[in-house]
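Go through this one:
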Amino acid sequence: MKVLILGGGQLARMLVLAAAPLGIRCQVVDPAAESCAAEVAPWHRIEWAALPEHRELLAWADVITYESEFVPTAVLSALATQHKVAPSAEVLQLSGDRWHEKQWLSRLGVPVAPHRCIDSLADLQAATAELGFPCFLKWRQQGYDGKGQWRLQAESDLAAVWQAAQGRPAILEAGIAFEREVSLIASRRAGGELVCYPLTENRHQEGILIHSRPLRDDPLQAAAEAHARRLMQAVNYVGTLAIEFFVADGQLMANEVAPRVHNSGHWTLEGAETSQFANHLRAICDWPLGSPQLLAPTLMLNLIGSWPAESLALAEQGAHLHLYGKAPRPGRKVGHLTLRASSEGELMSRWLRVQTILARRSAAPLP
């Protein structure tokens, strides 16, 4: 099988690495000036609008997939007329716009936070008067890792925040007093076979994921799986998907959907029987899916801005280092570290030792 991956970031890199043992050949397309996936697969620097013209490259692929929500849906739709594309352009169109995403979730009975569409400062003033403070203004498109998102605490914040948002179409979401943030990773084949990974608890700082920990027997697992099944069946989803939830008053409230492999699922590389990357490839190739079973207590820690000396990071038993080949830069995900242990107690001990080694301001202790 041959897979063409649109987007050349760390997700593409890990997809390529997961593809090799399965005998899958990959190539990568990305219009950016650099691609960390280029170290592990052929990279083509092509503007998205010009991609349909590269017929030889497209004909090479048995299936086209994407790791970036920045691929224009019009391009995906055009490719899908002659090539197999998974997940579909329809899914990206729904999830790539926060307003459309909220409507999609609501139609399928998945709870979401109260929200309003914002196209002007007057809209923002009216919406905050209705939803109250605190609340969050978010770009409808292309916001990620805290970019394109602003917290509003009072009416005096409105003018400055709207100016910072540059007048781009946005939504306003009511602030939710949540107890925790969790995500569900699921993979599905076209025929309906679907597997769900253990619900994963996440911690963020300034909108960036800091660490993720899969949970055994979480009481909300069944509810999260029911939401994922409903969403994926509704659009005949093919591939791996992540749904981020807030937990408020013991109930799930969807925050957003990512139609791709996801940062909060990186723990699956060492912590699950089959990784999210391998199952994404299996799904889009229409092969039987692997078990999502949690092998042992596991925790994933993002390396943000820079990374420690490899000898220090790997000194802890059960530590697995993944570097993305990216130059260090403040706020940039340059790699991650997965910890695995035989018990929850030992995992926490290892986490505390690694936290000391990393000595990172962003490392937040687990409860």
User: Anything to note?
Assistant: Residues 180-358 form a domain with the D-amino Acid Aminotransferase; Chain A, domain 1 fold (CATH 3.30.470.20). The chain has three domains: 2-85, 114-174, 180-358.
